[in-house]
Amino acid sequence: MAPPAGKRVKGCQIFRPFIYGTTARPFDEKTNPKPPGVPDDHTHSWTVFVKGIDDVDISYWLRRVQFKLHESIPNHVRMVDSVPSKPFEIHETGWGEFEIAIKLYYVPESGEKPQTLYHHLRLHPYGRTEEEKENMRLNGTGEIISWTYEEQIFNEPYEAFYEILTSGAMPSSGTTKPNGGAGKGKGHGSKQKATTGTTEAQRSEGGVLERSAMIPMVNRPGQPFSRETEQLEIKKLKEALVKVEDMTKTLVAELDRKNKYMAELKAGGDVKAS
Ligand code: SLL
């Protein structure tokens, strides 16, 4: 494919958050009955998906996704074309876990080559403790989730693609339209909110603007990726760091003691082991 006409926006890097992963559910007569025709040995129904954070549309940069499933599954290479505001997804049933290759095809204006991600389908919660296992279950739904937050980076995008990427979010004044009307660079990153009906950029339910790099402030059911989650992770890392520092101190003190003891032994004195 020939690269798109036009120049690249130098020194500019644009990222877009997205989520990919799997959601699985064991068959159960009451909560998830096996549909007719599903083989006896299939134990779960599952979904693999790629979607925008907070379910925002990502079809303006992602055109198509190829999911390569396990060869034991009929027609195991599946292409899914974008439908605005809908996730790219495949629904299946089966009995085993395996790695899924997820190939992302970008819109032609981007001039980007396809890129592949790998995701392990999880049917069973795992972990060393019940609590860890429970973390893989989506609160009370019986679903086993394995979801990953990711950021797609576009380095020095072509000018036309830059317009596509940025022309929906946060118009800075009443004169710019959310689609196509914004001048290059105008208003991007501005904290100002759109005020009139014609300029109002669309927000998802969680308060995230379409065609932006925003992530939600707080978690909501089914939406675990947010600033809140990020803060909790940072807290966990800080606590772990303190613990590691304490362990290091203890070890250094121990080493010191042993070195001293060794020095005394070498000096040939009559020492007692401490
Ligand atoms: C395992 N290495 O042994 C894996 C292979 C294959 C899963 C898992 C078949 C579905 C179908 C299916 O679930 N394959 O027949 O449509 O665990």
Structure characterization notes:
- This protein is of the alpha+beta class.
- The chain is 19% helix and 26% strand.
- It contains 3 helices and 9 strands.
- The protein has helices spanning 130-134, 159-166, 227-266, and strands at residues 13-26, 44-52, 62-68, 77-81, 88-94, 99-106, 115-120, 137-138, 143-155.
- The strands form 2 sheets. The chain has a 5-stranded antiparallel beta sheet, with no helix packed on it.
- Mean pLDDT is 86; it is low at 171-199.
- The structure holds ligand SLL.
- Ligand SLL binds next to loops.
- Pfam families: YEATS.
- Residues 8-168 form the YEATS domain.
- It comes from Echria macrotheca.
Question: Uncertain spans, ≥5 residues at pLDDT below 50?
Answer: 171-199
- End-to-end separation in angstroms reads 74 Å
Hetero groups: ligand SLL
Spatial arrangement of strands, main beta sheet = 5-2-1-9-8
Q: Compute the average pLDDT.
A: 86
Give a quick account of the main beta sheet: strands, pairing sense, barrel closure.
5 strands, antiparallel
Our count of helices gives 3
Output the radius of gyration: 26 Å
- Class per helix and strand makeup: alpha+beta
Shape: extended
Quaternary form = single chain
* Total DSSP E strands: 9
Strand content: 25-35%
Order of secondary-structure elements: EEEEEEEHEEHH
Instruction: Estimate percent helicity.
Output: 10-25%
